[in-house]
Design brief:
It holds the Pfam family AASDHPPT_N. InterPro entries: 4-PPantetheinyl_Trfase_dom (IPR008278), 4-PPantetheinyl_Trfase_dom_sf (IPR037143), AASDHPPT_N (IPR055066), P-Pant_transferase_sf (IPR050559), Ppantetheine-prot_Trfase_dom (IPR004568). With 237 residues, the protein is an alpha+beta fold. The protein has 2 domains: 131 residues, Ribosomal Protein L22, Chain A (Alpha-Beta Complex); 101 residues, 4'-phosphopantetheinyl transferase domain (Ribosomal Protein L22, Chain A). The chain is 33% helix and 25% strand. The chain contains 7 helices and 12 strands. The strands form 4 sheets. Strands 4-5-1-12 form a 4-stranded mixed β-sheet. Strands 6-11-10 form a 3-stranded antiparallel β-sheet, covered by helices on one side. Strands 7-8-9 form a 3-stranded antiparallel β-sheet, covered by helices on one side. A hairpin with a 2-residue loop joins strand 4 and strand 5. Helix 2 packs antiparallel against helix 3.
């Protein structure tokens, strides 16, 4: 079963709570968090890791100190468990989102903001760029971020990072609100067994998920920092 969770990140976290959370992640993560110059970036990175630990402890009934990350050659993390546990994390602005499943998955969230819409010709395929330009002017920026998060969620699903250019594949939205993905280097053949779903988490954000099954949850579980205060008791045992 696919699970998607979202955590709202406030502009300030009580230092005592931050320290409690910080002690629950491994040394490598602590070093990465300490390297951030932005406090909000450190919050997002920490909460993303805590979210995964909470999921694993709940699902597999193991203690937090038994959780160890592994990384593929593209630096995508996973945790060796039985049954398998795959996950992906994304964060932007005030949100951290997490997707988990028994197979590879991907997720991406982006805050919608003003951009020069012409940059789409650099990142998207010719067809996607033309579709974007055919939209009403007021719809172009939201469409850009919808397409961006769809494509990023697929790249993260595959787990090969920047080795897959955004313009190497085409995503189309069908009349039935489904999505098709095509490889532009292989006669525009459909890429099979890839499914997408978009969610409205916040009107100022675009959020897309990608998985090998269409069985996405109807809703996202949403948590606040106050929710974490009680949840982390599971990790501190």
């Amino acid at each position: 079963m696919i699970k998607i969770q979202a955590f709202y990140i406030p502009s300030h976290i009580n230092p005592y709570l931050f320290e409690r959370l910080f002690k629950l992640v491994d040394l490598d993560k602590q070093k990465k968090i300490n390297q951030f110059t932005s406090v909000k970036d450190s919050y997002r990175s920490l909460i993303g890791d805590i979210a995964i630990r909470l999921l694993v402890c709940q699902k597999y009934h193991i203690s937090n100190n038994k959780i160890f990350y592994q990384y593929n050659k593209y630096n995508k993390p996973n945790i060796a468990l039985n049954p398998p546990f795959f996950f992906n994390i994304s964060h932007s602005g005030d949100w951290v989102v997490v997707i988990s499943h028994t197979s590879e998955v991907g997720i991406d969230i982006e805050k919608i903001q003003d951009i020069d819409i012409n940059i789409s010709s650099k990142y998207f395929t010719y067809f996607e760029h033309q579709n974007l330009l055919s939209c009403k002017e007021e719809d172009r920026i939201p469409y850009f971020f919808d397409l961006w998060t769809l494509k990023e969620s697929y790249i993260k699903f595959v787990g090969k990072g920047l080795s897959i250019p955004l313009n190497s594949f085409l995503i189309e939205k069908t009349c039935s609100e489904q999505f098709k993905i095509r490889n532009i280097h292989e006669n525009f053949d459909n890429i099979e067994n890839v499914f997408f779903k978009q969610y409205i988490l916040d009107s100022n954000y675009s959020l897309s998920a990608c998985a090998p099954t269409p069985n996405f949850p109807k809703d996202i579980e949403i948590f606040t920092i106050d929710d974490l205060k009680s949840l982390i008791l599971r990790l501190e045992k």
